[in-house]
């Protein structure tokens, strides 16, 4: 065992080098119609094919027991976690950064610990996030990550903290919604641990759920597989606990003699999950794809909700926070119970029970008490993280169904009490009375309009949600739940004129509904009725659900009107809100009221007397901005820039907030700190609202519109309102284009169509606009192939054919029309795109259809394919081609050549990054292989293959599609001949 150093903890910054396949330029198109609707983020689907040694900024957090390495430029990922006692890495460390198409935006890499908010995988998992390190007076040290996410401008913070003398890492999560609207979210910590066949999954589930079944299952079995044994999990599989019975879960690697324990209050952190790629060829392919050494891992995850199908809504100005703990254990043959302070394993013989105790901190003179059948035994010893302790209690008779308890006390403190309760039940969880956390919804759920509407809304499918809410209102016109949600959705889509009647109707039915009154105030404010909005907020009583939010929004209006004393009159309520945003509003009122000392005291107290000793809640962009604006000192400016790096995505939302409160000079000060301002910043603060006449306004507008449109996607309410106001004065069409993107993202499809067509009519020929019109509007929505083709050809002619969506759509159109010559031109142009993997399948299919099989076969055997997780298409593409070639030789009566081809049908080249899952439907492959073997006279092999193809229809684990059923029936017909 390694020598233990002095009792201390420390955080430091350094640089490390890691072999990396870099993510290159992002896709120029906004993400539309993708899972979870991550607009305004763009796809990260351009990855270098060659590895380079890349230098990363890193944060090292360590004490005498643990050493943790974080990467701020990769989402704050905990990259490496070392147990210094054994010199063993207790999380899985991927020796290479090798992104693959798994994340919400595409690129994602495996290993370490990833923090996901507000959707998964986090949109910033491959981006830089704000970061700081802290050394505390008590000897502890922290690293804090956070950001303002771009989907809805919510703020997240994760603090990882190590204490001197303690062998666990503390994770504190703090989520804040500083906006006046409800925003969907979830949060999951995704932790990778190394996999081998000895890994045991230790989860105190009673019932559980997965991504395959619409019902809850009894742990630990799925079909005949014991999910506690990772080696028994055959294919990609995940499980979530339902109604967790204890506060711990984890894994133990018996071959490597180490494990990982997670501990949290299950009242706050209900979610406990594991994911395994399984043990089939698909699993091997993914591990090969994600690494350079084919190393394997399993994910163990925690979060506040029971499954990753559950997205909820943070109320306006609501905060949510909790703590969880992670620690390694070793040399104890697993564990059967755990608290934050100690993990326990026991072994029973005929005459004794032996406990192994792994403590995470020192407990001197602890009393270990064992109770069985009314008899007590106890010993006294000192527990320490430096070593495990083994305690033996003798038995006068074997333990059968007898309950025993183990209690550990240190002085007046109870460290652990194990076995005092048994909560496992066999009663099926009733989804009517327990929270429904299923990942898969049954058919009967589809008829529950409100339930399905809320689910669609939580997944970002706003158009589908509104359609169901409106259908529900047609059946139940006075449903206040539906009216409230519909009104809020209209607000989120910048349609206050539609929100007002919905929310007013709620109040006419339920006059004390503070949610409706609050959002009606926000709608009136959006329309410009500030005085009415202020009166509505004043009318929300102190006992109401939305009282705290109303105080904050009322304070913002009072600041806009210059009613500083009104804000200060709510000082107690603002400070009671528990977040730094409300504190900054109070500080602003003191500043503008001339009470500088009071403002300074508020912000000084928030950050502590030592600028480096900052509690979690005050390592916050709003506080840092307010401190800078108060005195504009170089020190406060340096702190703000160091934390945010002058990132527009962080500073612009704060500046817009100040602008909304009428603090234009402050807003411009914030904007001046943005390192690389885009058109968005110039839209916000070109000063158009202060232009003295039309001529001056025109000049300012032209300055804005001269900026590049690349990667500019509006999502901020203030920018949307401004752009709608001035779009009529823009002759270039750029503002209409920007609005069209936003409208499409929030499900306002007809508005999007109008905006895009208006931009086109004004003469704009930007590649994303032409793609949106040609692909999204005319191809997908209208099925107008003629108009679609015209627009996409225009895109290629003007913009050089770099927009992959345009090329792929034209290929599909020409395939439908049978225009092979024009199709060849498009396929040849595809060779020029930066990310060749995006077009490989289209090229193979096209060459096959046009009789140029040699070119298709060369691609299949030489090019590296990228697959999306769950949509592994390189294998089916390869199979289809091989079957095509085999049957082509059959048609030409070349049976020997046909057999040579069909025998290759499941021999996938390595660079396809593909392997068949045990769930993959292969009846089509079996059918054609059997046909050829029968023609060759091998009836026995043919019959066996036909039988395998037919039986696929009855194998529940196979994710059968329509083709699978068709070929299963064809196999049956052949068997009956």
From TrEMBL:
Domain DUF5107: 39-329
Protein name: DUF5107 domain-containing protein
Organism: Paenibacillus selenitireducens
